[in-house]
Amino acid sequence: MTKKKLGLIGIGNMGNAFLSSLLRDNANYYEKYYIFDINRDKIAIFKEKEKITICSNVQEVVEMTDTIILIVKPQSMEEVLIDIHPLSLDNKKFITIAMGLPIEFYRKYLGEKCYISRVMPNTPYLVGAGAAGITLDPKLSAEDAQRIKKIFTLSGKVIECKEELLDVVTGLSGNGPAYFFIIIEALADGAVKMGLSREDAYLLTAQTMLGSAKLVLESGKHPGVLKDMVTSPGGTAISAIRVLEREKIRSTLIEAVIAGTKKSKDVRDRSIRQ
């Protein structure tokens, strides 16, 4: 695979996580990285890295690279695209992680001669355990598509999907950490109520969630089968599950994903109308 140059515009927590994972990767899919952030303090830690060039503006990043990741908040994206618009963008490969902004929005500024892919990652990428949905530009070569997917599989799991399903990805894995943090906090509160220390309650709850997720991913078994492995007849687990079912936890979580998906669709529709 031919080595190329990668640009990153926006080096906040997520940009830092992607860049750090790429620098650790022995495959070295990119021979050089060009980075820019309006906050110079965020990129200062990369100043002495051999393969990294710190750029003075977004135009320099685009001009010097083949592939550019736009790690910019949705409300700031238009300003960045306006800066990029006058440049020669033929065959440039753009990847955006901004929630709710469809490829159609980017085409207005970047034109038709470049490639545009969208990714919806989540915050666990910060600890190398992310999940993301990705919509690749169908005109990409197989090599370029593989290279782009590699960026996000180095520190997470990725599914490839149609762009309209990225709203569902947002409602599920994009928002999912917030749902799970609430669940962790609530379960720990229950343990504290019954006498466990707060510190021990958080440790056991978080580790149990981590281990359960690992069991789903690595065993290949249906979550219902794994649940049944825990629920002995007349035991403590089935007694607790009865309460969860009575309080409609399944319906509540389903509605949460639906609400998050609908909100993402609303944001997307507004951006198209602008």
Mean pLDDT across the residues is 94
How does the overall form come out from the CA principal axes? elongated
Please state how the strands of the largest beta sheet are arranged side by side.
3-2-1-4-5-6-7-8
- Beta-strand content estimate: 15-25%
SSE string, helices as H and strands as E: EHEHEHEHEHEEHEHHHHHH
Helix content: 40-55%
Q: What structural category arises from helix and sheet content?
A: alpha/beta
Under CATH at level 1, the class of the largest domain stands as Alpha Beta
Question: What is the number of independent domains?
Answer: 2
Give the CA-CA distance, first to last residue.
40 Å
CATH topology of the largest domain: Rossmann fold
Radius of gyration: 21 Å
Q: From the 3D coordinates, which CATH architecture of the largest domain would you assign?
A: 3-Layer(aba) Sandwich
